[in-house]
Amino acid sequence: MTALMYAIKLAKEHQAQATAVYVVNTKALSDLVKSGIFVAVERDEYQRDLYEDADRYLRHAQHLADEKGVEIDTVKLEGSVHVVVKELVKSLGADLLILGGVSDIRSRRDELASETDRMMRTAPCPVLVVREDDDIWDEFER
User: Fold this and answer.
1) 70, 72, 101, 98: which is closest to 85 by C-alpha?
2) Which of 32, 54, 67, 74 has its CA 20 to 30 A from that of 16?
3) Longest dimension (CA), the chain
4) What is the distance in angstroms between the CA of the first residue and the CA of the last residue of the chain?
5) Any long-range contacts for 23-29 (C-beta under 8 Å, 24+ apart)?
6) Entry pTM
7) Second CATH level (architecture) for the domain 2-141
């Protein structure tokens, strides 16, 4: 949410178009079934929940942008996160990819598996990483 608020703030300051993206990681869900952690029925139920979450977050993104008078498109995708985001960024001709949710990396394996890390490494445009910060929330409210 912090990255979204920062993106809306930047879009307003620069009269830019913004796109909020939510990717349902169906690749990870399939991997969970293959490894025996989920059975197909559990995957389907969890996937439905993720799609509902996506809709809720994208509605909230639209609401926040409307509140600040910023034009925003909302896009719900599915697949391997870094792959579909890269494809979308290319197709939109985006000037900047803004990411949030960078977590602490505990091992090299975690780093290599991190979707955020993969997006940073493969994005066809500059990437801005927004860390959780109360100042951004305060600034957004102003």
Assistant:
1) 98
2) 54
3) 49
4) 16
5) 23/76, 23/77, 23/78, 23/79, 23/81, 23/84, 23/85, 24/50, 24/51, 24/54, 24/76, 24/77, 24/78, 25/50, 25/78, 25/79, 25/80, 25/81, 25/115, 26/78, 26/79, 27/79, 27/80, 27/81
6) 0.81
7) 3-Layer(aba) Sandwich (3.40)
